Structure formats: structure tokens, C-alpha cells
Backbone:
């Protein structure tokens, strides 16, 4: 089952078996994200130490700047009780190490050619706002626990370079300024977004 099919299946299960999901509460969840000028793709983990705060860690994989990590904290400021929706705000620190990579293209005579680039590492701070939906769950302020099985979230942030931002250097091969400009636009500071999901690791309580 592919990722999209798995998410649709869990959404349907959340609708038709809400009573089952409501028995589960959690502090830890694991998931995946993808986005632009934020994390491209990552393995996501979070710990909810009360009903309104999360701390999160991400192992980042970016096709241009290689691997990296992110550490963040989020505050859920407007939970909509019994609806599953929450509005979040927070901040994430992200570090990427840089990479060497190539773009393959076909020349006029049909031969395969590669253009090589080098992208530097960089550190970023990303102030963030967003929204989260807990499938079949709710937030209980008094008990400081969250209920549900699956969480879907959208984050929008502005990436601020803490040191010199990533830069793209042409190394060798057929030059193509268009590729270099597009890559530089992706690794620059600026507005970005991330969508993702997380699966709760919890235990059942009596209802």
C-alpha cells in the first residue's frame, strides 16, 4: 500500500471507528513530512509533555543540501475541543550539511552528460505557524493528554539564515544557469511550508 492509500485508509477508519480511536492517548508520535524550503522530506518525532506544548525532532533529507536535522517547539494556542483541530505556533532550528550532486541531461547527439554542483551547509531558524488535525481525537486541557491515532499537520514558516545561507557552486560539466538559479532559489532563506503526518504511540485507557 502506498503512502497516499495508507493515509486515506486511516482517515476512513477514523470516521467509522471513532469510539475505538478515542480510547488511545499518547505522548510520543512518529511520522514523515515533506515540503519546500523547510525540510523537503524528513522522519518526524515529537513528544507532547502537556496538552498545549510539543517538542519535535526531525531527520532531514534534502535532494540539494543533503542530510540534516531539525529541533523545534510548538504551542497549540487555539484547540477546538471535540473537533480535532488545533492552531499551532512555534519555532524550529535546522542544520543541513551540504552536498555534491549532479544533474543528468541528454546532449544534442543523444549522449548522456552530467553537470556537477556543490551546495554548502547552513543553519536556519524557522518561526512557524500552522494547523493540526487529530483524526478521531480531541485535546483535554484538564488531564493534559491528547487522544487519537493519526495526526495531520501543515506548517508555514520563514527560514532565516543564522550563518551564511547555502550557496550553489558550478563544478564541471555542461553549464546551465537555469538549473543553478533554480537550486539557489530552493536553498535560500525565505518563506516555505511543510505537510506531514504522525502516528501516535500510546496505550489504551478505560472508557
Residues:
Amino acid at each position: 500500500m502506498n503512502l497516499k492509500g495508507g493515509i486515506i485508509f486511516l482517515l476512513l477508519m477514523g470516521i467509522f471507528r471513532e469510539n475505538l480511536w478515542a480510547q488511545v492517548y499518547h505522548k510520543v508520535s512518529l511520522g514523515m513530512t515533506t515540503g519546500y524550503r523547510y525540510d523537503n522530506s524528513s522522519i518526524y518525532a515529537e513528544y507532547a509533555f502537556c496538552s498545549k506544548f510539543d517538542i519535535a525532532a526531525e531527520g532531514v533529507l534534502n535532494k540539494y543540501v543533503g542530510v540534516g536535522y531539525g529541533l523545534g517547539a510548538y504551542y497549540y494556542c487555539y484547540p477546538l475541543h471535540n473537533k480535532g483541530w488545533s492552531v499551532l505556533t512555534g519555532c524550529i532550528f535546522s542544520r543541513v550539511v551540504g552536498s555534491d550532486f549532479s544533474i543528468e541531461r541528454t546532449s544534442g547527439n543523444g549522449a548522456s552528460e552530467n553537470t556537477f554542483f556543490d551546495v554548502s551547509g547552513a543553519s536556519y531558524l524557522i518561526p512557524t505557524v500552522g494547523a493540526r488535525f487529530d483524526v478521531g481525537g480531541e485535546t483535554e486541557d484538564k488531564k493534559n493528554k491528547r487522544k487519537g491515532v493519526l495526526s495531520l499537520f501543515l506548517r508555514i514558516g520563514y527560514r532565516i539564515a543564522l550563518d551564511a545561507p547555502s550557496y550553489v557552486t558550478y563544478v564541471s560539466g555542461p553549464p546551465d544557469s537555469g538549473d543553478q538559479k533554480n537550486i539557489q532559489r530552493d536553498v535560500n532563506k525565505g518563506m516555505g511550508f511543510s505537510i506531514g503526518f504522525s502516528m501516535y504511540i500510546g496505550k489504551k485507557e478505560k472508557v
Residues 15-24 have pLDDT under 50 and may be disordered. The chain has three helices and eleven strands. Helices lie at 3-16, 18-21, 177-187.
